[in-house]
Amino acid sequence: MRKPFIAGNWKMHNNIAEAVALVQELQTALEETESCDVAVCPPFIALSVVRDSLAGSDIGLGAQNMYWEEQGAFTGEVSVSMLEGLCDYVIIGHSERRNIFGESDEWVNKKLHAALTHNLRPILCVGENLQQNQAGETAEFVGGQVRAALAGVTAEQVPLITLAYEPIWAIGTGVPATGEAANDTIGGAVRGTLAELYGDDVAQAVRIQYGGSVKPHNAAEFLSLPEIDGALVGGASLHAADFAAIVQEAIKE
Fold first, then answer.
1. Which residue among the candidates 94, 96, 128, 227 is catalytic per the annotation?
2. Does residue 166 have an active-site annotation?
């Protein structure tokens, strides 16, 4: 049994005071999370204060991005060594990083290796755009993203990674994929590619989330399916009651 994992990606929302208030409210709403891993991923400026606010809590902390070099003349970047010891997880390869900021598969692979080297647990995002989906190219494209991101990653390292299938056309649109379609893509293009690369035993050990307009009213549709091991939640993670409701759905399942 793979333990469910619900992570909240706050994106570019919440100043420091708002971040502290949100995690305090979230801790009150989530009194018991033993059967489900939970994490929040605030902006860089709030990582330290959120970590302090979560002291003694079972809620984990993640960063939304990182750079693979440890230090240097990289204005505006946050290095992997700066995050080591500060947070537990790091999101890598989110579609907004790929599409808006031009991050390539090569960059995603470098970040993944750096995160693993520095004891961070990556949340690796993959997903197709609407045109690829409509053209029937989802499996080929998503499988290719998985292969490129995991180049050089060992079978021993793979279970340390959480993958998140996020169809780009469903992120922030209010129009999620159907549970059946998400389950099929995760089981085939994502877990199936892992099985091709590392064998079925390794593939079955890896947690794979769904992300893309996950809300309290539709969370059960995704979390009840056998290939989906949790959710990477965007907008709903900015509201403690909504995020807690999604966690509760994962605990039920």
1. 94
2. yes
